[in-house]
Amino acid sequence: MSTLMLAKTALDRITQDESRLHAYACLDPDIALAEAQRLDRTGTHGPLSGHTVAIKDIFDTGDMPTACGSPIHAGRRPTRDAAAVAAIRAAGGLVIGKSVTTEFAHLTPGPTRNPRNTAHTPGGSSSGSAATVAAGGASLATGTQTAGSIIRPAAFCGVVGYKPSFATISRSGLSLFAETLDTIGGFAKNVADAALFVGVMAGRADLMQPPMPRTPRFALWPTPDATSADPCVLAELERVAQAAAAAGATVETLTGDHGWHPLMAAQKTIMAWEGVRALAHERRVHPDLLSDPLRAYLDAAAPMDAATYLAALDTRQTLGAALNAVMAPFDALLTLSAPGEAPLASTGTGDPQFNRVWTLLGGPALHLPTGTGPLGLPIGVQLVGGPGSDQRLLGAAAWLEAALT
Amino acid sequence: MSTLMLAKTALDRITQDESRLHAYACLDPDIALAEAQRLDRTGTHGPLSGHTVAIKDIFDTGDMPTACGSPIHAGRRPTRDAAAVAAIRAAGGLVIGKSVTTEFAHLTPGPTRNPRNTAHTPGGSSSGSAATVAAGGASLATGTQTAGSIIRPAAFCGVVGYKPSFATISRSGLSLFAETLDTIGGFAKNVADAALFVGVMAGRADLMQPPMPRTPRFALWPTPDATSADPCVLAELERVAQAAAAAGATVETLTGDHGWHPLMAAQKTIMAWEGVRALAHERRVHPDLLSDPLRAYLDAAAPMDAATYLAALDTRQTLGAALNAVMAPFDALLTLSAPGEAPLASTGTGDPQFNRVWTLLGGPALHLPTGTGPLGLPIGVQLVGGPGSDQRLLGAAAWLEAALT
Question: Per its record, what are the GO molecular function terms (chains A, B) (predicted)?
Answer without folding.
Answer: catalytic activity
